[in-house]
Queue: 3 jobs
Job 1
Amino acid sequence: MPETSETASRTPADFWFDPICPWAWMTSRWMLEVEKVRPVEVRWHVMSLSVLNENRLDELPRQYVDLMEAGWGPVRVLIAAEQKHGPEVLGPLYTALGTRFHNRGLPNERATIVDALKEAGLPGELADAADTEVYDERLRASHEEGISLVGQEVGTPVIAVPGADGRQTAFFGPVVTPAPKGEAAARLWDGTLMVASTPGFFELKRTRTEDPKFD
């Protein structure tokens, strides 16, 4: 898609996601709201909780290990789609996958992935990538591009925007539910950037008391 004067004036916000994470899904829906109320353009990238946790599976509960093992499939499919059809397909495919996994509670299985691919206008045979390591090198590279900005102690999502000094300001989160809309989305964006761009600032956190609330 050619760049227009409107898109050229928008601040790029690079967003790394794993489609199986419900909290990243909430943050991604908030970012779509931010695009409506601030001059921001989200650029989607894939990261992987399966990659992040592959060397510490013996420390994790069995249920989470099972989730990590199943998590390879969707991110491999996303990377295959990006490699074959360009990065612009990641946003629509993430929306199609996330709506099925989180809003509709469908299982992480081939039929769900094929259905999501078709909704995103992509060939269903891309689902074959879920069971192969062909795209793992690119998957790991995409994951590293995001996680290296914030460190190994966090997960998904990772967001990065250009800082005032030209360097990227990157952060994990925010973790929020439900996804703010309208002016509330704008306030959270402004505040997050203010905090994240403060030199020496590292953490602001409180215990989660609610599960994700999907629209």
Job 2
Amino acid sequence: MRADVREVADGTYLVHGTNTNWVILTEGDAATLIDTGYPGDRQLVLDSLAAVGSSPQAVAAVLITHAHNDHLGSAEYLRTTYGTPVQLHEAEVPHARREFLHQVSVGTVLRNGWRPGVLPWAVHSLRAGGTAHLPVAAPEPFPAAGPLDLPGRPVPVHTPGHTRGHTVFHLPGAGVLVSGDALVSGHPTSRISGPQLLPDMFHHERAQALASLEILESLDADVLLPGHGPVHRGPVEAAARRARDHAL
């Protein structure tokens, strides 16, 4: 399988892995990597960096929207192999260290196995390392509020609910929002297309995930780069409202 790399704005790339996405922000050959896919996506992550003219050695930091295995997959590998800092919201740091795990359980998945798409997704997730034990030994909280001093100058915005420390990344100059799992545009277990919340079983606190859509509505962006599904173009405010309508 080849990495599906798409430039969605100048120096901003959405990469489709196997049922999950990550984002690369570039300045010359330097890069910021937002999320890292499943453990099984490692070669795709490396290939995608090469495809945009960068390399793992040139990644200034790995930013993690949340510490589920399908987003955290290669973070510790990059940290230990290349010395790349791994940064998250302070509430998500202990999650990345695996002091606790806010991730859908195998039992919950089995109880929902009758739903369309759930069992094929579960089989893929297991094969890709979805249940692997992958702590990040030394994750770091974001160093300061406001834009990070990294390629792309992403602005972390706390959007709890999917996990306690879930964070989206706003690129105000480019009109882009990297939304992780706070707002997606599709998922193998969903029969809906377009902006939506993930199915209920995936959220640590669904009511808070729903409330966080109000935070997204306040962000000025017209390109949505979700953790799952294709790029969505149009006002993020409208996308968040549409997701709320589907969820209520």
Job 3
Amino acid sequence: MKFKKLVSGVAMLALSTVLLAACGGDKKDDTSASSSTASSSTAVADSSSTADSFVMGELKDGEYKLEEKNYNNGYRVVFTIVVKDGKITESNYDNVNEEGKSKVDDADYNKKMEEVAKTSPEKYIPELNKALLEKQNPSDIDTITGATHSTDSFKEYAKQLIEAAEKGDTKTIEIDNQVEK
């Protein structure tokens, strides 16, 4: 009798584990996207395209720009990279409000985020830009604790800019980041 209960218990535990793993699935993130080849590319949010390893090809010199179309919490991403001699020489990722002012300069926002997340845009935005210049590959950039969502967006958007640089496509990539309600 005890053996039968033990076998039943182990079977239930195994079944529960399988069910939980199957239900876990992939989490979706509204910030990442993939671009189309239209003259002004538009993307639909989907982070499943963010890979742990991103294989880069040869980059063509030029300036490559990406912009979110809509404001989220009062800000939208604008991101430009410059490629010279096949290397990323400038990374200008930022979040700007309707007046074009950077989140880095929003003292109240930075103070509140620092209290909660132990980091703020004035810290992590320059850190992300510097990391891309040093690593050259978004997959090699470490996630910044307290700014996971922003790091993931940065990596996905950097990947899209690099893909444009591989093709030499200097058209602005527009991200439709409309949050559905």
